[in-house]
Amino acid sequence: MPAAPPPARQGSYSTSSGLKDHIVHALKLAKSDLEANHQKANFVRIIMRFPQIRSVFDRLKAIHAKCDVNGDGKISIEELTGAMAELMNDGRAEGRASIKPEFIKRTLSISEVDESEETKGEGLDVKQFIVMCAIGFILADENKELSTFGGMLASGDDAYRRAMTDVVTAYLSFDREGKGYFTAEDFQGFMSASKRADAARNVFSDERFAELDVSGDGQVDFEEFVYAFSKWVSDEDEEEDDEDPYLSRKANPLTPRVLLALQLSKNKLEKNKKGVNFTRIIMRFPKIHKVFDRLRSIHAKYDKDKSGNIDLTELYDAMNEIMTSGDETMDKEQIENIFMLSDLDHQGAQEGLDVKEFIVFCAVGFILAEAGGKSAKLITGEVSESDKEYRDAMMDIVGAYLTFDKDGKGYFTSDEMHNTVQAVGKKDAATLLTPERWRELDIDHSGVVDFEEFVHAFSLWVTAGDDEDEDE
Known about the structure:
By secondary structure, the chain is an all-alpha fold. Helix content is 62%, strand content 2%. The chain contains 26 helices and four strands. It has a two-stranded antiparallel ribbon with strand order 1-2. A two-stranded antiparallel ribbon has the order 3-4. Helix 19 packs across helix 25 and helix 20 crosses helix 21 (388-404). Mean pLDDT is 77; it is low at 195-199, 237-247, 373-386 and 468-472.
């Protein structure tokens, strides 16, 4: 028979020790829930879910980037409070108490893992932000009236809730008593008891204990564990980035914002009960084609040297004309970052963007503007406000992409594309989405297709018959 859940915690949130007591109590509750459901905390199973957890962590990175208003790589208490107020206004804290700045400050402070005394209080980096979200998640589960950032994010988001539950379960694989910490001996006990421990050794080797025990006191608490865990989950991504930092679009500061924009678009479509359907979008190809023709005309007009490409200087000129408000100033850094995301053949600023890459540029600018970030004043966002035809076409592109990336994680695989085609079962979609098309999609041969690559191929599909018409 599972043990009875621990009694309700009555301690204060106003002190570090009181907050730590609540975290330990929340972990005991999580342990009791596992036992009540006849489940065991199993780190090996959690390893198999790293891709799904990584997807949620990528979303948290995107949220961190959006909250980091001043761009210093850290979220301050002011930036965090503003983000929480936005979530509360969106109805993500129904039935919970109002935001308490002192509690936010205390939670932020306890999340500053691996921070020197000199820089404490300056804000949270990405890994520390994930720690704070995990703390907020378990505290919100412990106290249904408490408003936390991590708790608000869990409202109505099953993927986020599952990932955070995985984090807690991973921790409890080693702190089996829910006492609030584990030691090197506890780890050795886990490795001895697990029948499949070999599968975990690559992730949790003896050397990794030094990464976990940030304070060096011989004990690993929940905050230290989450801090290290977030790195392990993302290790594969960091290795890919190290291979070619110049060509990797993941290094672009706008990449997290694109991911967030896709998430917001996905939520918007679901909220409006507009399911994504590639077959319906195929039927709209003629209307999308008209918009692409307009973009082609703009590209041709500002391709002053008739090279077939628009370089950065020509792109600035094009945007100056098309921006609808004369008193707006262009954010050149943002334009350059979108340019680099759209430069799929990596020819650089001097060579510029061809027509297909220019369409990618417009699509990226559109979703960033829709997300309401700093790119909201770019031409793509301004045009979409006043031009329904343009907006509809761009939303069709986003909807077509989300047909395959159903979770809005920022990429999809060939298996996901195949499964989507199988599920559709329509002749038009099956004819268009053949295995050969994958080679058109996966431009960098990474095995996954991101939004920019998809738009590039999509522009080819929509305009597939144009070259034949010109030859005639």
